[in-house]
Automatic annotation (TrEMBL):
Its cofactor is Fe(2+). GO terms for cellular component: ribosome. It holds the Pfam family WHD_ROXA. InterPro entries: JmjC_dom (IPR003347), NO66-like (IPR039994), ROXA-like_wH (IPR046799). It comes from the Bacteria. Keywords: Dioxygenase, Iron, Metal-binding, Oxidoreductase, Ribonucleoprotein, Ribosomal protein. The keyword Protein transport does not apply. GO terms for molecular function: 2-oxoglutarate-dependent dioxygenase activity; metal ion binding. The lineage of its organism: Bacteria, Pseudomonadati, Pseudomonadota, Alphaproteobacteria, Sphingomonadales. Residues 93-222 form the JmjC domain. This is 50S ribosomal protein L16 3-hydroxylase. The keyword Nucleotidyltransferase does not apply.
Amino acid sequence: MDLRDFDVAAFLQDYWQQKPLLIRSPWDGWSNPVEPDELAGLACEPLVESRIITRREHAWELEHGPVAESRFAQAGRDPWTLLVQSVDHHVASVAALLDQFRFVPNWRVDDVMVSYAVDGGGVGAHFDHYDVFLVQGLGRRRWEIGPLCDDETPLLRHDGLRLLADFRATEEWILEPGDILYVPPRVAHRGTAIGDDCMTYSIGFRAPSRGELIEAWADDMVPELSDSDRYTDPHLAQQDNPGEISAEAITRLQHMIAETLLDRSRFARWFGQFNTAPKNPEIDWRPDHPAGVDEIRQWLSEGRPLVRNPASRFSFIRETASSIMLFADGQCFACAEDTAGFAQAICGEAQLAVAPNSSAATLELITALFNTGCLAFDLED
């Protein structure tokens, strides 16, 4: 499936992080990527994050997975919705859906959450702090759009759900299979299934908060700072009042922090590792027996393409015209020349054919990524 007649440049210029957009059936041929039974099966797995949200007469009920197989047979008459996170990490056809949205950088992609709802099912009116594309897979869903929200927007009292206490729709659409609704951050929205067997694919994007970045960056940096690196004030001038913290002292103290925090090279390396830390490390593709460079070369010579672990995160940061830092699942690899070319290619493609006569450095990198489970070969005959 490919998007057709979709003006990416116009979308990024006029809609991205600005206003919602309804995109009617933009595919050259729509096919629902995962069947309801397969989604229900994933929800029963202990390592898959899932939830069931039920709308009772006067309250919302939240159940966390794993879901017992018998639970679906026991579902009552109240409208309910099943939500399964990171389905792209488990189902290749759902992972392929992400390829159509690569006009947004990979480092911003979070995952694909898939929902299944019976008639009237939904998760209530809410807002997110990130962009989302809502792709209708099966059935029909009514989407209502409301105003911009913020931290002061009143919410219903609920331990597990952030639902709006007062939602008033300003726009409304009914989505059919293959339709897409883009919703920017903080825009209130509510989706309600019309009929049974309603499936929606929510492609969410990461948006780290300032507090999250500062906390994680500081936690990584502090252990490496020397205890002997301390405040100094040579040529101290006598003050009229010893109780004053002088402007000079504040400037010197702030500089101690700023000089460390503003180390751009160190921050870039840290962020690449932080951002590619795996969301689902339990999806382990490490081989039973580590491979050597000779084995890797042999598989490449047989024409076997490399494939990325769908749960792995790959990104790179350019250092010079011929060198980059490759990041894969929180690891950093310095790459230059043809190795840098390979690293950039594997960041952009989920599957890649590599020449067996690649440089020793490239083969060593492939071997390292294979043995850590970031890459694999299709070794089936």
